[in-house]
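Justification of resources, computational component.

The compute hours requested in this renewal are based largely on the per-chain cost of generating structure records like the one below. Each record pairs the submitted sequence with a full structure-token output. That output is archived, and it is also reused by downstream analysis tasks.
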Amino acid sequence: MITLRKVSVTDGDKEQAFLLSFPLEENGFSRPGKGFDIENPSGFQDYIKRRIEFENGINIPEDRVPETMFWILYDGQLAGIGKARHYLNDQLRIKGGHIGIGIHSDFRGKSVGTEAMRLLIEYVKSLGQDKVLITNRADNIGSRRITEKNGGILEKIENGRSYYWA
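The structure output for this chain reads:
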């Protein structure tokens, strides 16, 4: 069973180790935590507190929007990271869209990404968004398949990116 759990101030060693197990960059997905010393417990906690501020619209940089970060769980085990942006700005219409997902390599091929995206689309729609923009690298066939399985309709491919609406 795939579930989402919002990041929390109670997140600790297990979540920190999981986040650090992601490569710094893979298929257009950058490991969250850039700009924070997430290798240190206090730096990881600072990062989590910042994510909670973002969700609540606190101290968001001008070019960003409120965003909720989730741990993606597979039968209770940490399997990935999901981000749901509450609305779009001009920058997110070009790159990023409403949703970002990173599935750990140990959990790929188990429909984790497909179900997590469905849940994230539901979440974004629950925030009042009628349509959800999902952008991927055009050469990331796995992400594009997951998007299409969730009803994503390809609008265009431009500058190496695919643009879907769900």
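The chain has a mean pLDDT of 94. The radius of gyration is 15 Å.
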